[in-house]
Amino acid sequence: GAVVSQHPSWVICKSGTSVKIECRSLDFQATTMFWYRQFPKQSLMLMATSNEGSKATYEQGVEKDKFLINHASLTLSTLTVTSAHPEDSSFYICSARDAGQGPYEQYFGPGTRLTVT
Amino acid sequence: KNEVEQSPQNLTAQEGEFITINCSYSVGISALHWLQQHPGGGIVSLFMLSSGKKKHGRLIATINIQEKHSSLHITASHPRDSAVYICAVPLSLSGGGADGLTFGKGTHLIIQP
Hints:
The complex is a heterodimer of chains A (117) and B (113). In chain A, 0% of the residues lie in helices and 53% in strands. By secondary structure, chain A is an all-beta fold. In chain A, β7 (67-73) and β8 form a beta hairpin. With 113 residues, chain B is mainly beta. Chain B is globular, with a radius of gyration of 14 Å. Chain B is built from no helices and eleven strands. In chain B, strands 2, 4, 5, 9, 10 and 11 form a six-stranded mixed sheet that branches. The interface between A and B is medium-sized, with 25 and 26 residues.
C-alpha cells in the first residue's frame, strides 16, 4: 500500500516552455502533498506544501508565479514549471501524507527529471 | 529551522561488514525519516521513527531524542545495499512535526563484493 506515482518520469523541454508534473496517491487519500527538488550533488529541498482545496505554501526563495501548484483532489497534485529555463533543470520529487495515517508519515514518488535546453 | 548533519559522507566497505550511518539534528523533533536513494534518483522510505529502535530485515534504525541523534545500521552488508542513505526531519516545529522535511546531505555507501 501507500504508493505515490509521478508523471512523467523524465522530460526534456526547450527554454521558455511550460512543463506540468503530476503526483498521484494511488491507494490512499492525500490531504497534503509536498514538492521537493534536488539539484545535482545537492540535498533534497522543500519547495512547497500543497493542501487539497487551498493555495500552496511556498518556501522562501521559491517563486510561486513560476512554480504553479494545484491540488484539486485528494489524490492529485500538479506542479507546473512556467517559462522554464536551464537553471530549472533538476530532479523534482513529490511526497504525500496519508490522511488516514499519523501526521508524520510521508510516501515519496519516484521523481521526475527535468532537463531544460 | 532544523539543521541535519550526517556522517560519514562517503563509505566504502566490503561485503558482509556491519555498517553504521549517523545523523544529528539541531531542533527537537517528533519523527525522523531514513530514506534510500538509488542512482536513478528514486526515493525509498526505509524508516520513520520517533523513539527507540526499529528493525526491518538487515536494517536497524535507532534514535535518541534527548541527544538529537539517530543511527542507521546495516548488518551483513551486500553490494545491492549500495546507495545514498538520507536522514530527514521536519523542517520546523511550527507544524507540530507534520511539515515538509529537511534533509541531510546523504551518505554515499558502496559495498564491494
